Amino acid sequence: MITVPAYVRAEVADGGPAGPWHHRQVVSAEERARRRQLRDAYKHAERTARAALMPLDKGELDDLVKFVDARVVAEGCDHTRRFTVQWAAEHQVSLDRLVEGLEEFDGYCDCEVVMNCDPDQIYG
Ligand SMILES: [Zn+2]
């Protein structure tokens, strides 16, 4: 079922113009606020769904990123996840699931884990 917005119904009743070509001008402040709210809710749901792929909690991911960052700064990134692997082994974290989670956020090597897997961005 198609729900016709109130402003369209009002205009049709008035005999005034109503159609997609006219929507731009008649979108009310309430409608804009409602759309913004839907968009925010969608973004929030999307972030939550992606964060669920990360097998770490925010504190653990923060610990991992700090660990890897310090080593990448000291020794450089060799385009593998050697420091990530080391952290996972030391913390008894399943590497398969961790890699899957990191790749969801484009963490394909140690320096990308540091750059792309920011806990604040992933968990909000
Ligand atoms: Zn790298």
UniProtKB/TrEMBL annotation:
Tree of life domain: Bacteria
One Pfam short name: DUF2695
Protein name as annotated: DUF2695 domain-containing protein
Species of the source: Dactylosporangium siamense
